[in-house]
Amino acid sequence: MGKEKNETIGGDIEGSDLNIPKLYNVLDDYYINKMYGYSNEMDAAVSDNILSLVLDDFSMKFRIVDADISEIEDFDYSIRKFDTNELVESGERTKVESDIIDLHLSSLMEENKEYSLELKLYTNGKTYHYYSRIIRSNTEFLKKLIDMANTFSNNNFDSNTARDNSVYLESDGTGNSRGLEYVTLKSDFEMISYNGMSLTPAEKEVTLVNYNGKVGEIHFSFTADAYGKTYNIEENFICKSGAQRLYMLDYTRTMNQKILNKLTVDKKIDLGMGNRGSRIITNAKVDKIAFLADNKLFLSDGKKENVDVIYSCGKNNYIMPLKFGDGLYFINYGYNLDDSHIGEVGVCLLKYMEDTKKVSKLAFIKTDVDVASLKESIDELAYMGDSGMLYIKLLDKVVGLDITSGSYVTVAENLETGKYSISQDKSLLSWNVGDGLNIYNFAVGENKQLDNANEVMLPIGYIGSDLVVAIQSQNISNTVNGKSVGSIFEKISIYNNLLELQKEYTYDGRYIDNINVSGNRVHIELYQYDGENFTRLGEDTIISSKSVASESRLSSYADSYRGKNYVIDYTKKIDREISYSKTLEIEASDLEYDIELNTSYLKNMYYVYINSKLKGIYDDPVRAVEDAYTDMGFVRRNGIMIYVRAMVDTASNINFEASAAGEYVNYWENNELTRFRGITLKEAMYFLTIKKPVFTFTAINNPVILTGYDSKTVTIYDINTSSIQKIDINEAQSIFNSTQNDFSCFFTFGM
């Protein structure tokens, strides 16, 4: 964290990573916010979880690391507004004289308002793009925040100094179920202080995530050693300034063991603390297993009685095993995957041959999107069948790549949340096409259609290969306050993989909504319609006798430190130690796919971050806010902060002009307001904190505007009576709840 910071802490780094200079934001004695260079211009989400500070004199400093400075020629920069993409300032191309880039900005930046910075380095005929959100704010509080977090972090390594941290703890017995791999302020003292482990930490990587001069969120990542083992540790702090001291609003720590050169194998392989295998596949004879742990791909061979690490990657890319065939096929996806694609984001299809211990690169798919968005899509669908076709989801489309011919087909596009479904084994995709459905079987490369006359069908989910379909009501529109809130359903149908109807469920005049498929169960809520409104009556669960595949090879145990350790089980004993292959010789193919993606899709999506990491991407702002509220997270869309729970003030008031009330009615009628129907009054208070009036209803067709609140009351402007009223906060919550919490705000997303 100090001036001598040169090392990259946490995670393996591929050799190609060293070919790209990295940047740190310089804040006095701290080097924070490690920034990676991209070969192409990137979307706004690439800087969602990194924020750099403009100093009081409107200067910014960045340090170049992992580079020969003599090879870097020039730099320039540009600063834009997030809401309009308007250029605020740009710097001319300037020669790089040392490892410090010193920017002297104009005074056009407003205090405590975020802007977008793009800084470009020119080196050896290449251009690398670096991105950060930037803000001009209270620098002294930020330095105190980093110091306090660092002290808290260091205190926890010694049970004596850890006592000083007890003032922050909220232990209630609910935070211990996951042991040392996941610790919060609700965990007990022993968990906070590593339960007596004698850990020696390395230097920390520090990232500033959010900051407004009063509340800040920072993230630490580092390694620590104990008893010949090394652990990856990440800590997330949300802190608030107070009159006497800093207050810790939230703290989360995750911990997992790095897998080094010695593992115990005896009918099982112990992956160590926190290394839950994210995907496990077997061959047809079930004598070979491929699995992931610690960002490494392992291959076990029951006949040869050995386990090899066959591939590893860095912290900004990921691995997924796909299938066994004439070798083990897998993908590596993310940033900076190999020397031929420096600074690019994409997907590599690879094949490992066990006899030669070589990896062949079969294809590369280039994508100009941020790594988090790519990972969200690939994790949702990546499948390779016996036909040799690779099917992957890229944002809102699914493509099939023919590796033998180098061509590709678009299987589906413009997929909308709630209107498509993927089977658990990834072999089936169904999506709505107007009234009916398309069902694509990736295993055989076959497309079928399901279309029943006069029925609008939505694919809800799969139970094995059986498709659960909701049939939309054609006679009744589900509206609240005069506007549609989505479909209401009249029955549920279940079809097998031959599209034969297996079962149909109706409920005697009652309607169905909020349908969720989990395992072999379908959970639903039932509603009654009185001619004007829907009233929730209860819920029901449809249970299928069909077995749903689950991975039983993964088990766990708690060690003496209450760390949760994960284990891969085998059917026979393997006596040998894990062997690590030497640097693999990768045979590269020239086959590349440059697939045009719908980047406007990303601009419409809501990104939810929990503990500074992407939790999910949604098209529904309500679901995004609810997720963020539960776990002290935040929501961004196209670079703009939509919601952050930690930054809600205890009281707020807006100088609302009554003459603007009519405009808000027009905004509502013309769908120009972002609708948050279903969030709570407490959640809606964030918008008042950032001085955005909230349009809502106190009764059907009685529109009001929320203009302020304190601990006891809510202030509203009643549009119909042109009057200002104060309502008891508990009464207000009841009133807004009765009109289904139909809150709306005005946001500009710079489309």
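That was protein one. Protein two is written in the same sequence-then-structure order:
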Amino acid sequence: MKHMNSEVKEERTSNKNRIDLFLVPIVLIAAFLNLFKIWTDEYANAYYTAAVKSMLQSFHNFFYASFDPGGYVTIDKPPVVFWIQTISAKIFGFHGWSVILPQALAGIGSVLLLYVLVKRTFGVWAGRFAALAMALTPIVPAVSRTNNIDSMLVFTLLVATWMLFRAVRTAKFGWVLAAFAMIGVAFNMKMLQAYMVLPAFYVFYVVATKITWKKKIAFLTTATALMLAVSVSWAVVVDSTSADKRPYMGSSQTNSVLELAFGYNGINRLTGNTSVTGSGHKQPAQTEQQTASSETKQTSNSSADSSQSSNQRKSSSSQKMQAPGGGNQNGMFNTGNPGPFRLFQKGLSDQISWLLPFVIFSIVGLFAGVKFKGPYTTKQKESLFWLAWLLPVAVFFSIAGFFHQYYLIMLAPPIAAFAGAGAVALWSMYKQHNGWKSWLLPGGILTTAALQVYIMSPYVSSIGVAPIAGVGALGVILALVLAVRKQRKNSLTNYLGAAAMVVLLAMPAYWAMTPIIYGGNSMLPSAGPDSSSGMGGPPSTATNSKQSGFNGMQPPGSSSGNSSSNGGQMPGGSSNNGQMQPPSGSSNSGQMQMPGGSSNNSQMPNSFSSKSSSSKRKSGGMNAEVNQKLLNYLTKNNTGEKYLFATTDSTSAAPYIIKTGKPVMAMGGFSGSDPILTVSKLKAMIKKGEVKYFYLSGMGKGGQSDVITWIKDNSKEIPSSKWQSTSSSAQQGPSGNGTLYEITLK
């Protein structure tokens, strides 16, 4: 801390090729958090892992990002990240860790990029603090340890930021084009989410470049046109290709990439209207209680079906999703309730908001004395960039109707940048006794410590009182001592400032380690003592201390006499005396689905926590294990059919694709509600000998209702003794464990 005042001058005179020895341990920390034990995740997000398995088999599947080897339907995202994952699997072999590796490396790369971006303008210590804050932001390693897209998306946007900063420094238009083209590449990773940074890019370029307004407008217009061209390039090719020559565009209702981009993966995220029926009509999001109940069913076996009577729901209320500290359910998918303080609510704050009060104080300090008309220093211009990234994204997450906790990684770069730049700026103001600005440092430390106590308080049963009391007490003491010692310049004050930074980063560091300590969830990654549940809530949401055990869950076709007393159930499945059931075929109308993972049971926590004796975690969910007896039966009786079997959605299909590499038809796509198949099309496929076995289970049928009814009316039921994994077949509830059908048409 004592070197901060002169760090910029020292940096300019230092050897540019010299390795920053302080950066080395930061990178090692990031590497540990992102890479350690990823080899234990056998299936990762099974929905995406199955796609990689399929993409390895042909260029046709590779280009379109086909979910299944037969090229029937794509996944619900554009292909760029999955191209990278497929290349990784081609080089290192097909494993869970090989599809996770690109994201883990992207997480480490983001730490390095943030160091480079912040260091050049704000100094080496600011770069170090920013890199460390990025590495220790809990949601960053939690996401990077999975094969979800967001870690790679953030890395790509930081590369674009580096290009933009270089464009301003060198005054070369080529770098502007490259920066916006990179955002176009990011669009082909997760569509409109990539455009969240555009306000920052436009504002910064307008403010920071010293060219005429005419050139600014011309350059930005050209760069934007290039960005849009790159963004829609893949979509135009796909949508221009005849539908019978490519897979159906999964999770769209019109078989269109552009509809997927601007609807399902776009505006509907803001409005919350992401639930669809087979007819393509969007249904409004459920009420808070219904949605949270649905999410609980998808990620734990601790609540009963949403169709329970109110008395049944009350009787199981202790098993439902609870907000940290108890009380009402914590919003949709545990993402809080929309409002200006949503990021401070339980469920989101422990993922991203640990340093937000300090960031707010840093913003005040960095912009203190700035006049609207300028002139602006380089520090002020780049601070404006990070602010224009932070605010729109924070506003979106404050009002959005539907997102998952791991999307919050989009906030990590600006928060980390302000934490680093602000630490140096506030320290300088404190040491120079700059009037009221000298109080920003102790004020930021005090309020940040208070928020961290608030964040941790619901987890007292897991982490104990000591860490909470320690952070609170040390934060108050250090803030008060720094306030008292404002007029003294000695080494003790420097050590106190450094100690305060350590205290504020201690619990985020612990939270960032929880996916390693407790086990993670590749479907809905989150950090915290219950990270393996993917729920983001406090330990009280689990029915027992193991949280991620869920050993009562069975793969398709298995039947167990064991039952859970909590009657867990999943959308599209049934509650069978507590046994989790495979999906019935659809996301029932009005039930919110979970993009990027299965809408049904593949969102369940992994069956093997870090405390499990198993060396591998099949965290693809309940159906991340195949029923070997069913597989043997289907393989033995296949007479040349293209598809091993057909099922209603991706949940039951994914593990069999991963296991065998053979085509398995998810008739309704990801959630079972895509209007892909009609009775006439299915008849034609059966007559051509493409498919004859159908695994169906459960309740709602969504957009596949007519098809499923026809299958049941025109098929031969296969006795369960031939393919179920156990002899026990006692079932309760309306649907049992599912049924295998055979249809042969002449």
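Residues 213-240 form the longest helix (28 residues). Keep this in mind for the problem set.
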